């Protein structure tokens, strides 16, 4: 096989290019390692992307065997059994103040409410685990007071990140009628 | 009188069995002593009593326990003349028989413990038994059974007076070496595993259904020959899965029953012996008293029952001793000469309510003040500052007693403080209320983790609910002649009373209220002295269920006390009887608001539409299918229908077609909603006669309501 002949000047140019590329990759690698991330479970709600902190997610179940609870708060779909406990199944769209949806939810996400209790939230699809830059999450949380904060992903996608503790800390989940 | 060593193990079992039989005999004797029993009822009890005594005699003799056989024989002799001429049993005879039973049990226990040799000759006791009635105070009640345990080498007849606060007993028939000691945490953990197993069983059932779907799909492909082998295999696997699922279900049920039996026992086991105690104590004090027990069938955690027994004994002794007046005094006050004591047990979710009441003289607050001062519990200044409730609470103070002398039953100042300590050690609370001259009521509220309650399962529309049996007096089928239908409310004539009729479906907000139809089941429900006739669509049957607390999001809903798991794993909500009988006037108020019917096969979609429409002031009823919607529309009238386009069986288009055929619903505004946000779906929906179309994506708060109002207004202007 004939050896590849490289022009001297070209060789030097190539070497520089490769060195620059290597430096850039090194920089990128270092910053990737150092950047802290926040793991989330991301899912669609209507036209938008929502997410829950991954650490609050306990299970994803098919939406069935839910017993409706007459006279309960509007957001309550019903109650179900999960590992020997009785949990509430709640409509996330309703908890968020009446949100449209693309397809009827078929999944229940069992989440830790932030106070040690579990509950189930309905969801249109099984969530996808992904990450958000932690700094962006913290900055967004510092700015917002509500249960949902808007955070951009690395590729500039808008995610509505739900804070379970804030969401369930509100007092509008309870009895529908005082009768 | 030595027992054959070969038979000794059988004697221990006999003692346990004898105790159960004697408890039944005791209850029968107390019943025979009552006034006003019909001859038929008396005859039945005499027959049963004779049979029980005969059983005792036969079992004792078969084990060579001749002394016990002789005692039982003497008891039969005492019963014989009364049995021949059926009549109320005279009190002295009841005394003799009860004393004889005491003797029997004390000796049986001594034989079981291997102390039969130390027992004195029974001849003296037997002659005493037939000669005269012994003083009733010799019969003592101890927790765990009706009879005192004989002390080693003690004379059976010399039973000591009952202690003021008896110690917790060994459970009946459970000697230390007869079983295992298991920690509560281990049992609780086992229960959780059983719950998980039930969920696994449900998943197996789901897998079986999935296999059936796959099999059906393959058949639809039309490749019958090519897929024949696969389909046969799948069908076989599906069948096996189904069988395995059913077997797992049986195993889960058996495990749950076993755990229930290990951890709980019926409250009756501690309440029944109290009947005898009340009877003997009132006799001893020259009083007359009758104890009624309500809710004895509720099963509770054994540990809780054992701790509570002493407290209940004390409360009842207190009621007889301090609360009830002498018969003459009662008659003078216009009361029945026999005092009424009531024990009521009720489990609501994870709370147990135990109520002990009497119709005696009530608590004399001035006497309580004076006694507390005299015993140095409070100063005169403090006494003057206390309100009535605080004074009443003094009876729970350590060292408190209104007695100036010490008697067998009271005066030592050890009593209700110990009761309160017991209740508080169980994380519970005790409250007392009293009306001078009318009686006193103690209410113990305790948390319970284990235990089951009898529940009547009923149905209103598609909703199954449970009602504690304790609150259900009877069930009847509605007949026009028993109903009084008014403009606002229907009443039912029941035992000379007019009871309001409540429709469970309407009370739960599932449909509009209407008078019961002929043949509809009506339950007579009582709670807190109120009674109503509750109309349901069907009575499914009774179940013994473990009621679990509801999660925090629904705990405040007044209608529900908890939820129980049914055998297939689904949850059954349990109603609060006090809510059922509470004022129902508010229900009629909602009848004036606008009504919407939401038809969707998605539970979440129904919930969302309901939330949005209720926020707009609508009264919303739900239907899970087109067929159900047609049923609802036949029974009720609505201002608007919100209907899913894509539903199985009958879709929105077909439902609209059916509505437009009917003159009553021809002009009813209908809005179609769909997850398919396409022009084709929209055109198809509107062409079918829908008044509006929304994609579910558009159903955000406000948008649905605006569409509904718009459609209603357009329909209104056209008519």
Automatic annotation (TrEMBL), chain A:
Residues 37-173 form the CheW-like domain. One of its GO terms (biological process) is signal transduction. Pfam families: CheW. It comes from the Bacteria. InterPro entries: CheW-like_dom_sf (IPR036061), CheW-lke_dom (IPR002545). SMART domains: CheW. This is Chemotaxis protein CheW. It comes from Corallococcus interemptor.
From TrEMBL, chain B:
Residues 452-586 form the CheW-like domain. One of its GO terms (biological process) is chemotaxis. It catalyses: ATP + protein L-histidine = ADP + protein N-phospho-L-histidine. Its EC number is 2.7.13.3. It holds the Pfam family Hpt. Involved in the transmission of sensory signals from the chemoreceptors to the flagellar motors. CheA is autophosphorylated; it can transfer its phosphate group to either CheB or CheY. This is histidine kinase. It comes from Corallococcus interemptor. The lineage of its organism: Bacteria, Pseudomonadati, Myxococcota, Myxococcia, Myxococcales.
